[in-house]
């Protein structure tokens, strides 16, 4: 379920208004996919783009932030 964008956007905190706006925007992500989310964090609207760099269903996936405020975390 962690790799399903629709479930993710339904289960995040409502005040962030997080939504997928580019790349894979609904359904399950797969290896090589990118997804860009937009959300409000710390009262500022922010975007971040992640690459699904490794995916072995149903065991694990690795997402790497390509762009965004939290890239260095």
End-to-end separation: 24 Å
DSSP strand tally: 4
Strand order of the largest sheet: 1-2-3-4
Report strand %: over 45%
What is the chain-wise order of helices and strands?
A: HEEEE
| Uncertain spans | none
Helix content: under 10%
Tally the helices. 1
Please outline the major beta sheet. Answer: 4 strands, antiparallel
What sort of overall outline do the alpha carbons produce when their principal axes are compared?
globular
Q: Kindly report the average pLDDT value.
A: 92
Helical/strand content category: mainly beta
The radius of gyration is 12 Å
In short:
With 73 residues, the protein is mostly beta strands. The protein has one helix at residues 5-11, and strands at residues 19-23, 34-41, 44-56, 60-67.
Task: Give me some keywords for this one.
10% helix; 73 residues; 1 helix; globular; single chain; four-stranded antiparallel sheet
Descriptive account of the structure:
The protein has 73 residues and is mainly beta. It has one helix spanning 5-11, and strands spanning 19-23, 34-41, 44-56, 60-67. Strand 2 (34-41) and strand 3 form a beta hairpin.
Question: How are the secondary structure elements laid out?
Answer:
Elements: H1 5-11, E1 19-23, E2 34-41, E3 44-56, E4 60-67
Antiparallel strand pairs: 1-2, 2-3, 3-4
């Amino acid at each position: 379920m962690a790799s399903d964008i629709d479930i993710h956007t339904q289960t995040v905190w409502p005040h962030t208004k997080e939504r997928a706006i580019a790349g894979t925007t609904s359904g399950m992500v797969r290896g090589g996919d990118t997804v860009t989310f937009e959300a409000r964090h710390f009262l500022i609207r922010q975007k971040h783009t992640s690459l699904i760099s490794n995916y072995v269903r149903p065991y694990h996936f690795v997402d790497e932030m390509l762009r965004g405020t939290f890239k260095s975390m």
